[in-house]
Amino acid sequence: MGKALLIIALGFSAIFSTMALNMSKFSLRSVESTADHLTYATARNCATSGVYMALSRLAIDQTWRAGFQSKDLSSGTFSVNLQDCNDDPSLSSMELRIISDATSENVTKSITVVLGLPPDIADLAVFCTDTIRNVTIKDESGNPDPSLAVMNAPDMLPFDKDGLVSLAISQGHVQIGDYSPPDNYPNGNFYFDVVNKIPNVTHVTGDCTFAGGRTVYGIYVVEGNAVMNGSARLYGVIYIPNPGSIVIHGGGVPSESSIYGGIFANGYVDGTGNHISVRYDSDYMATFGQFQTAKNLYIVSWTETPNS
Description:
The strands form 3 sheets. Strands 5, 6, 7, 8, 9, 12, 13, 14, 15, 16, 17 and 18 form a 12-stranded parallel β-sheet that branches. About 5% of the residues have low confidence. The chain has 2 domains: about 130 residues, GSPII I/J protein-like (Pantoate--beta-alanine Ligase, Chain: A,domain 2), CATH 3.30.1300.30; about 170 residues, no CATH class. The longest helix has about 60 residues. The protein contains 3 helices and 19 strands. It is α/β, with parallel strands linked by helices.
């Protein structure tokens, strides 16, 4: 009986010893896992710090491209490089890439952020959030120049629409519903006040049709669609703020319609049927561009590589 109890006791002792050893190993692995997790998190925090430091510098100077090389933090190091995306056909020329690489102990982490650089509308003839079809973009000399157009923009540029509408109200140029301006509307000039360079602004709450054979002037804020019939002429700017609205060639006289100035549309521009020609005018677009508000950078994408 005594021997049996001794054997049982020794068996339990062996079991408890094995359990204690396994628990010790598990505890050690838990400590190591926690340490690794903290190291990974530290590397990620270092890389994120690099991104935010770059964003801060770019907020002060959008032309800054110097980056940071081997910058030390108490918990690790990081470096930041900046690349313009002109060489990447999948991205527009407005975009900038920030690459932040960080190391903490033996762990590395990389974060890549693509930023949108909003263009100056005064330097463009056409800006739209969708496609451009059957439209010729020309410079001030009348030569084709596609670089004066931006299409498929991710967002509309921030603009002082209220300021434009206020001008239209003060000038008596508010048209309720659909509207077709008469020939030489409103005063045969882009400017309401030529001396002080205050533009004519017309606010149309519905669709605006520019009839064939007519020549009109100024900035048109159109809540619906803008229809350019054949041989229509506009010396000024069409601004379409609402998503999905279009500038379209509507037919009429079988010849192209022309805009001397520019188009700023939250939709697409379609000259199919006849044709639309947009000839850049630096004076008109500079005047219109004064209503562009914040020109802030915006984040297009944020990508993190796995820890290594």
